[in-house]
Write a structure and sequence with these properties.
By secondary structure, the chain is mainly alpha-helical. About 50% of the residues lie in helices and about 0% in strands. It contains four helices and no strands. The longest helix has 15 residues. The mean pLDDT is about 85.
Length: about 100
């Protein structure tokens, strides 16, 4: 089981705190769609979390809200998608 600690910047409401406390007391129920992880599965997930599939230099750029909304609609890994799109655009760029 994974336990997640808040980093201190999040503010929870009393209702959210109560829901978390209640959830902590619930039993874990495994089924065919969500089986208990084997040791090998846990190791694979841990390795994937530590791996950095997209190596690069961090960069801050400003893009329009419309562009952000479009790229966010492409999936949870939208930052990696945006990085790949930028790489492709630069690769194909031909100065005039």
């Amino acid at each position: 089981m994974v336990t997640f600690e808040l980093d201190g910047t999040a503010t929870l409401t009393d209702k959210e705190k109560k829901l978390l406390a209640e959830a902590r007391r619930l039993p874990i129920i495994y089924d065919e769609d969500s089986p208990e992880l084997t040791d090998d599965m846990e190791k694979a997930f841990a390795a994937a979390r530590k791996a950095r599939p997209y190596q690069g230099e961090p960069l801050t750029i400003y893009v329009s809200s419309a562009t952000i909304e479009k790229v966010k609609s492409m999936g949870a890994d939208y930052l990696a998608i945006l990085g790949r799109l930028l790489d492709k655009a630069v690769e194909e760029y031909r100065p005039v």
